[in-house]
């Protein structure tokens, strides 16, 4: 029965991440996407995520930096950080409990102004990752992850900085969340006004939202002989 | 003992929102602020928040629009939306259970490039609100809240659009979260490198992050006689 199959699989192509009850939205299902290339592209275009976890039964959402290596995301923080401590460390031969998290990345692309207040919206790209975060204990993976976080902010920067020494590494928690239960959500295009509203005398359309960088400001004590590195040159004027 | 008092109350002024265990960070305590004016300013400078809640014991974080009226934040969505449904409706004489949420707003102001990877950071303003969200059932409050959400995106727009009709209003859930357990967090300034790193040959400083709007794009079917409204004029070129 092809029809039944079609209903059961509304996304016949580009399903790299298997949709689950948590990643299929209750509404605007047509905006949800599960293809790996798109998910990676949205993740790589930002560097700030909002990380949610549960503490004492209540939700907590904190902004934090992240990096990506293949199918893993990494966040870091102080070893004193409550959520990262809660992610637990894997003891020898011991299963790590881990910390259930939801990591969300959102990029706003435009304000959608419809004639009706009801159809006002936002054009955006977002990715929501559900899963269990685990502390990374392997030193090589910890170092690679920290590089990935710096490179995620600014490609080229990790090699052009002093990497963490042993003391700094010991003070840093690194947590990994694998990309498994993942969805992207996208809204593009103009307003979807009701046909009967098309004659109303209100401006309608999209106001693009732009993001960029200003001229880099050197630290007060920077040696003037140190010029802007190549990876910052494009923002120098 | 003034010294002990000073330790017990590290924020002697501008404490409008009483710090709680949830709003005092475990680290970088000096970045946390509890004054109303600052909290309102950060909330009013953005229009997208990340709303966290707990579903089946696991955290969920979704981006959504919000508005503010005084000491209340409002978010809206379809009546079919799972979290908004979970926020519950108040029956006659019945206490509403509400939905424990964490609503976080983050604005990134700059990339902080230290000589050491360890001291790389982000300049930002953020506000985290903990509380219990309740569905709004009063029709006047619902209408005022929807106006506030539109005005929050673009001041002047609510009066220049067709407001929700009864059918649209019935299809919309409005949820209120009062500002009570709230903190702002701010990082400003340059990198905090270790003194022994000051001679390292790496550029250090801040790359400002800018946000703005592009030229408004009219809807395909917009009557060309309808010019840009005044509240969009500054972005017209």
Write the layout of secondary structure elements.
The structure is a homodimer of 237-residue chains.
Chain A: H1 2-8, E1 32-33, H2 36-44, E2 48-55, E3 58-65, E4 67-69, E5 72-78, H3 82-86, E6 99-113, E7 121-135, H4 139-153, H5 166-170, E8 172-178, E9 181-187, E10 205-213, E11 217-218, H6 230-233
Structure description:
The structure is a homodimer of 237-residue chains. The first copy, chain A, is 19% helix and 35% strand. Chain A is of the alpha+beta class. The first copy, chain A, has one domain: Pnp Oxidase, Chain A (Roll), CATH 2.30.110. In chain A, strands 1, 2, 3, 4, 5, 6, 7, 8, 9 and 10 form a 10-stranded antiparallel β-sheet that branches. In chain A, a hairpin with a 7-residue loop joins strand 6 (99-113) and strand 7 (121-135). The first copy, chain A, is globular. The N and C termini of chain A lie far apart (62 Å). At the A-B interface, strand 2, strand 3, strand 6, strand 7 and helix 4 of A face strand 2, strand 3, strand 6, strand 7 and helix 4 of B. Strand 10 of chain A pairs antiparallel with strand 11 (217-218) of chain B.
């Amino acid at each position: 029965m092809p029809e039944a199959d079609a209903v059961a699989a509304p996304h016949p192509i580009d399903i790299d991440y298997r949709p689950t009850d948590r990643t299929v939205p209750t509404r605007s299902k047509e905006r949800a996407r599960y293809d790996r290339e798109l998910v990676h592209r949205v993740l790589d275009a930002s560097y700030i995520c909002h990380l949610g976890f549960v503490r004492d039964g209540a939700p907590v959402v904190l902004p934090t930096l992240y990096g990506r290596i293949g199918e893993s995301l990494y966040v870091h923080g102080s070893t004193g950080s409550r959520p990262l401590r809660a992610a637990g460390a894997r003891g020898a031969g011991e299963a790590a409990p881990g910390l259930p998290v939801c990591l969300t990345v959102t990029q706003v692309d435009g304000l959608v102004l419809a004639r009706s207040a009801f159809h006002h919206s936002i054009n955006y790209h977002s990715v929501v990752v559900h899963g269990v975060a685990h502390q990374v204990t392997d030193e090589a993976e910890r170092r690679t992850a920290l590089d990935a976080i710096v490179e995620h902010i600014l490609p080229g920067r990790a090699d052009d900085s002093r990497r963490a020494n042993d003391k700094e590494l010991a003070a840093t928690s690194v947590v990994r969340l694998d990309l498994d239960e993942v969805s992207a959500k996208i809204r593009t295009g103009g307003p979807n006004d009701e046909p009967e509203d098309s004659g109303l005398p209100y401006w309608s359309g999209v106001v693009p939202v732009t993001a960029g960088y200003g001229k880099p400001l050197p630290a007060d004590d920077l040696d003037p002989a140190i010029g802007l590195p190549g990876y910052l040159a494009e923002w120098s004027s």
